[in-house]
Amino acid sequence: MALVDVSRLPQHVAIIMDGNGRWAQARGKPRTAGHERGADAVRATMRAARRLGIPALTLYAFSEQNWDRPQAEVNALVDLLCECLVSERNELVDNEIRLSAIGRLHKLPQHARSRLRTLTSETESYQGMTLNLALSYGGREELIDAARALATKARDGEVDPNEIDEAAVAALLPSMEVGPVDLLIRTGGEQRISNFLLWGSAYAELYFTDELWPDFSANSLYCAIEAYQGRQRRFGLVPDAQQRPASGESPSKLERAI
């Protein structure tokens, strides 16, 4: 069982939920069965993050490139999203979890946008944790949209191009509303970030696991956080011995995640 130091939690955890299709195929089931089982992993992970006190959790639910998958699978993913927006409502409300969404949401079917809008509006005042769904999302696409917005502002005289800085760009990135990513997890054995949160993950700690997403559990999250806490985050600066995790740290600061 992983040991998690609750005084040094990542403030923003992002997850690439990979492996649903392979999980299903390995069991002789259609890919959609993997997505359905993956929804259970979402629930378990959300609960574990909320229990630990992690402020923000971003899940890569549907990429901009996923629209090119077979139409039947796309339809099944959208239907599953709509079902979850209904079935998980009480979970979010009871635990005061704020739901938000990023991506080119206008590309979602109208009925999906309507349900998403209803639940994000209903939970917008909650401060327990933010569950951020990346839907029809791409990191490059998000940066392109921000560049277009800045170009328009410059054309209209609202901003001096010479004064555009990191803060100006970040202010136009919806993914940055919950802050930069501290820990980025990818399941399924692949070791790439696949166009996910490119700006916000600039200094993220990356954690890759062979575990397929439907098998991801609360303890899987704790293991990822334990690995994160064993690293030294320098942000390009000179290492500081004072920031290194102390060997044999006081047990009072460590909590066995259960």
Per-chain topology:
Blueprint (H helix, E strand, L loop, with lengths): L2 E2 L7 E5 L3 H6 L5 H22 L3 E8 L7 H17 L1 H6 L2 E6 L7 H14 L5 E9 L1 H17 L10 H5 L12 E4 L18 E4 L9 H12 L25 E2 L2
Parallel strand pairs: 2-3, 2-6, 3-5, 4-5, 6-7
Antiparallel strand pairs: 1-8
Helix pairs in contact: 2-3, 2-8, 3-5
Task: Name the descriptors.
single chain, alpha/beta, 6-stranded parallel sheet, Undecaprenyl pyrophosphate synthetase
What features would you describe in this structure?
By secondary structure, the protein is an alpha/beta fold. The chain is built from 8 helices and 8 strands. Strand 4 (97-102), helix 5 and strand 5 (129-137) form a beta-alpha-beta unit. Helix 2 (31-52) packs across helix 8 and helix 3 runs parallel beside helix 5. It is globular, with a radius of gyration of 19 Å.
Oligomer: single chain
Number of helical elements: 8
Q: Given this structure, which CATH class is correct? A: Alpha Beta
Mean pLDDT: 91
How far apart lie the N and C ends? 8 Å
List low-pLDDT spans.
241-254
**Largest β sheet strand count, sense and barrel closure:** 6 strands, parallel
- Amount of helix: 25-40%
How many discrete domains? 1
Write down the overall geometry. globular
CATH topology: Undecaprenyl pyrophosphate synthetase
- Order of SSEs: EEHHEHHEHEHHEEHE
Class based on secondary structure composition and strand pairing: alpha/beta
Strand order of the largest sheet: 4-5-3-2-6-7
Name given to the CATH architecture: 3-Layer(aba) Sandwich
The CATH superfamily is identified as Decaprenyl diphosphate synthase-like
